[in-house]
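Complex record, two chains
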Amino acid sequence: MVFFALSFADCLLGLILSSIRLHAVEVDFPLYHNSNRSLKKSMLAMSTKGNFARDSLNRVTVRALNDLNLTLEQGDRIGLVGANGAGKTTLLRVLAGIFEPTRGKIEIEGRVTAILDASVGLDQDSTGRENIILRGMYMGIHPREMRAYVDEIVAFADLGSHIDMPTRTYSSGMLVQLAFAISTCIPPEILLMDEWLAAGDARFLANARKRMSDFVSRSSILVFASHSMSLLREWCNTGLYLDHGQIIAAGPIDEIIESYERLANS
Amino acid sequence: MQISMEAAAGAAWADDVDRSAAARWTKATADLWEGLQKYWLWGTMALQDIRLRYRGSIIGPFWLTLNTSIMVGMMGVLYPHLFHTTARDYLPYLAIGMVVWQFIQTVINESGWTFWIAQNVILQMPLPFSIYVYRMVARNLMILGHNCIIVPAILIILQVPIGLSALMAIPALLMLILNGVWIGMFFGIVCARFRDVSPILTNIVQVLFFGTPIFWDPAALGKWQFLVAFNPLFDAVDVIRAPLIGKPVADLSWPILLVVTGVGSIGTLWFFSRFRSRIAYWV
């Protein structure tokens, strides 16, 4: 058992400010044999290295998350590490409310902003500027409200004249810059980020990091999954090591990365 | 951050209120309502769907108008001879029947794809699931809007008298929209789980086209004519078509359509509340 003592003040603030609580959360993916989805099935089977079970109806399931108990409080900047198929993205999707856990309970205080994918909600044939409104809609923001943020987003995305070109012409790094600028235009209370951020260039990453530290100092929570150890060291203060859907270690980010690299290389 | 790694800590109480029928019901109705309020999102999605389908095309979605016009025009010339009637009687009947049928047909055919084609959004953005259903219905309504241009054209050219009773087509259309929503939701969920249902559905609808009096008169069935009323697809066409061409709606069309709508909507509401949380796992 790993336990981080919080100061009394932290506990008090945690009651009011953003927090995430997972109680015995389990996620089972059903695999349907007689369905026409063998590719997906075999990919899941490969990536999770055979973490299978059978559920009550005798369906084969793969356990993506196993009995997760976790409390995140304001100021936590969590870095998720683990091999492919360890459950990082699944955990982010559970936190985002996309997957309802098959068992267990999740309690979230605060507005969740999930940027799990850079390209969702972007129309390839519309310009970057038009896409700001569009992506805003996918984030649940009314176009009228979104218009107020356009200038600020354009400035932060820092794409120069490209902002008025169709996003079809963008590089993946530029897409990331635009998506990040849009997604964080309203300061998130809980920010969930997957892998893709690493596609940004050094200048953008520096800007993004500055923006992030602003959020976190304003009582936000960051959960960031990445394979880039340098980014994780820079952005996060706490590491969570996932393996086969279980937390096998948690603690200061440097220690966790160390143990992850030691295990991965052994 | 606190982490407890004690296995099964609290597992006993973890399966609690969140999964009760009442909690599911609340979530399902909230989903439907929140989705409805985001009309700007599904409206835009529907527009984009159409734009994408006709990208680079000069007349764009008016291809639909043209297709329907050609189809109706051809059948309108040929079939009056087969059915021993006049084009003046037959054309409005056929045109409205075809336009409404195409709406019904594409709604049913695309219902199986409601969630499936939205897979990438569903897995990245937490949005109400009902959004994808509204999007499908809205898209088909926009297509209906392009298709139905030929209806007033035909009614005017053939000088079909239009009375106030034609207004009854409006509640009839609303009824069709409501049915589109439950159909999109129901089959969207079923087909997310069972991919084979979608092609089966397409085949059934294809066959029903010939079995439903769209381009032929139910009177041709003679003493079996009463059976037609029990085909809800005919009822759906009839409640819109009859008032527009100044004919009485068949006695059983509205009652049976209302029963189908009621049973379908309530059944689907239960179904949705039961399986809503599984959709993301199935797509």
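Note: The mean pLDDT of chain A is 82.
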